[in-house]
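User: what does the whole thing look like in 3D?
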Amino acid sequence: MAQTYSQTAGNNAASLKPRRKRGWGGAAPYLFIFPWIFGFLVFTLGPLLFSLIISFFDWPIVGQVHFIGLGNYKSMFTDDPLFWKSLGVTLRFAALFVPFNIAVALGLAILLNQNTKGTAIFRTAFYLPSVISGVALAMIWSWVYSGDYGILNYFLSIVGIQGPDWLNDTKWSLVAMVVASLWGQGSMMLVFLAGLKGIPKDLYESASLDGAGVIRQFFSVTIPMLSPTILFNLITSIIAAFQQLTLALLLTGGGPMKATYFYAMYMYENAFKYYKMGYSAANAWFMFLIVLTLTFLVFKSSEAWVFYEGEMKRKPQKKMKSGGKGKTA
Amino acid sequence: MKKPLVYLLLIGCSLLFAAPLFWSVTTALKSQSELYLFPPKWIPSIWKFSNFSDAWTIQPFNLFLKNTVIVTMLSTIGQLVSCTLVAYGFARFEFKGRNLLFLVVLATMMIPWEVTMIPQYMEFNYLGWINTLKPLFVPSWFGSAYFIFLLRQFILTLPRELDEAATIDGANKFGILARIIIPLMGPPLILVAVFQIMNCWNDYLGPLIFLNDQSKYTLTLGLSQFKGMFGVDMQSIMAITCLISIPPLAVFFFAQRYIVGGIANTGIK
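Assistant: Here's the predicted 3D structure for the full assembly of 598 residues, as structure tokens:
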């Protein structure tokens, strides 16, 4: 056995070398990444280009295909009130969801980072809603929000408030949607928690030696040190806000009076209800441009408010730190 | 902050987050007569466990379960195999265009699925895959950017001396991956599997777009059909909601420490 093994191993080693010269060895990395290259071409780049192309066509799913140039884009802006309506709904949703999402996730992460007992249990409680599916989440909240039998209006009635029929009230349905979305913020909270754990303790110590209180420490140490994480979560939240579709489909169906008719839902209906594939592709590309622009603006602004420790010549600092530790030891 | 205040806030927020879940579980156990009461009853006077089996038979949920399990298994195996190969390729080889290609991998994470959704639908339609489970798991066999990134970062932390030692022992590149790298990749592979199982189990939009026949439905799609279905009561909806949430919750409890650690390592760029 041992003999045959070493023989084959020897053969392998011998046969590898000439192969490499013939170019097989050079192809090996491409063989390993081939699945991704294939998938990228077939499921991402191809569809991406194709969707750009069909956005210049009148492209029903059955029937004649016509090239109409910028026609889809033109009618989107000029004679489709639903386009403006849904864009407004999504922008309003994003304006509410993004700041609250960041605030809630950061607030919970800070609470979890206070060296209390039972952190794991609390962390689990905050993260659990993020584990279940969007459909389950929508079902649960449609029952919580029920005007007549819902638990929310029951609690409000205890303090003497007559709650509205949340999901059927044009004033409240979008807010209700934001709250339901905030319930599933768990992964963002975990990202913040990891960021908080990465802030060196001695920064807080020296801040409190300088007489900074809790609030001052939060704004002068926590926020600057956490700003790269905030940037990451800000961008993720913006993208998530623009893609929100499941909740709209299942909680309100876009109603009442299109008050929760999200842009993603508008796009979805154009494609799969009215089968206007070219038009829907134009909608999608417009949304892509908005998201890219917003991301770009956030990145641009981040130069002013994001603080990268690495750019402050971190290495000498580190040396000092370890040197200090050595002395005390 | 003062400790008592912190505890008070932690407990308060936990109750706030747990209340809707608790409310859905108790609703699932209520009998018809206690369902529509105001003020509502938190704890049902009789726990009607038969609600679960009754709800399960309103639609062919056994079939939906089978479909969901098939899709979840095939797509998870696909992700594990393809992402491991691709991550290894990016982490352990020098080749032309590597950095550019890896940048493209990362850039694909920025593309909203709405942009590629329609051509993908047309593509699957052309292949005759609409109304089959294939669109839901075949793409998983070609890697996904986030998982490739996650695994590559991990492989980069493994010392190259291991590879070199194995090369001297006569192992080829594939042998190194199979016998040296993969045995060390337990935690990140578990993380990929957990994320993929949850994503796939919980997916709604994929099945909604690609499936038409009830016989092909997944669990989430089956549950969503309850909405607006005549004569289906809230306790049935909540019963199914609870039942289909059990597997992701179980996976979460099993893998909690990997998830928390994994997000800590890769969440921030």
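In plain terms: The CA atoms of residues 164 and 211 of chain B lie 49 Å apart. The first helix of chain B runs from residue 3 to 28.
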